[in-house]
Queue: 2 jobs
Job 1
Amino acid sequence: MEERLRHGSHGWTRIKDEMKRLVPICLIVGGATLLVVGLLLPRYHNQADYDRRYMVLAGPDRAQDFRELRRESLTMSLTFQDYGLCSISWGLVLVAWIRRDRVNRFLARSRRSVALFGGVVAILTVAGQVGSLRLDLERGEFPHWADSIGIPLAGVLPILLALVAWSVVHALLFKRRRSVAYRLTLGNGNWWLAILMVVSGSILLYSSLVGDFWLIIPAAGWIAFYGIIWVSRPKTTPGIHPLG
């Protein structure tokens, strides 16, 4: 009986190891397939008709008419591209999760390494915002009478600096420990970090549902950033504040 239990346990371990390897591969391959299909499909059902109707849009309701025109004229091309890139992004996130022990060994060294990781996530977040704007511009999501994207781009540097400062301040919460075998617990009063992780997780889920691939990796990065800080704090740590 014991031998059968051991054999069953080893079999389940092999299945889990195989799943860890196959799931990210399937997500990346499936996402790449969707992306290629989306790129091969025509963007519009009838581009000549779209261009003709677009050029005669006028009046106070032209913005609403423009959105309705795009909804009627676009094929599934852009949708396939977006969800394909979402799937690829999730595959990369799972690869990073599977290899998290290597990351933990580096990040558990000091607050400086945690702050550096947070700074990288901040850069990815802002880069995603810029990339989203430029891609939407290339796809024709903005009508010619709309405001220039220079207005939102002007806020990129302040947002980046604010996110970097946010990362540095929260990195001060990190408590260095010799072991990296942490457990997630609310026993040390990490309510603030818990809220931040829930918010980041909600953004991650929403981005996945609507096909906003630009935010998937940054949102997962913020979850990892707050999680690394959370699990580093012993149960005896009182409260959560930047000088704690």
Note: DSSP finds ten helices and no strands in the chain.
Job 2
Amino acid sequence: MNLYFRKMSTARFHTIVILMTIVVANVFLTSCNNHSETTDILISLYGRCIAIPNYDVIINNGRIIPGADSSFSNNGKPMLLYYKKLEGCSLCEIGYLYNLDKISADTTYTTLVIVRPTQDIGKVIERIQMQQHGFPIVIDMVGTFEEHNPFIPNDPKYHTFLLDRERQITLVGDPLYNKKMTMLFNNALRMLQ
């Protein structure tokens, strides 16, 4: 079997891995009733390039960097991208960012969080500053991310991505969701290195 994989082209191998990932991710992200819909959504997302527009407010290590160049170079590394649209209690929802500290220390990829507050923008910025995370957090005040990436579904379970060096989606799902998603994330990350 090893010999078969050595003879297979890299493109074909990556295609097989992506399809296997879609099937496995589908099992972890859905209930029995909507596998088909989720599979369709995942297939439509994989391989799509994520546009990361410039933003006015970026917070890194508790400091606001106004008008910063937000080209967010990933330095030739894969990128873990979280998009969080804050609806409801914005201050409660940003507490989740503490969970990202656990995995963002890994230097084999970069982490970027884009937060879209729908209310209490000043309080959200203040709270994120106080948290002093070691990864950049972009404040998307007017929905620029959604505007540049209209193909991303509204459902938050499709708002976490592992991107390759060209910012193409290679995995959809939060690696902190459960151990199986963590394994999928780690396997996909190894494939990108």
Note: The two ends are 22 Å apart (CA to CA).
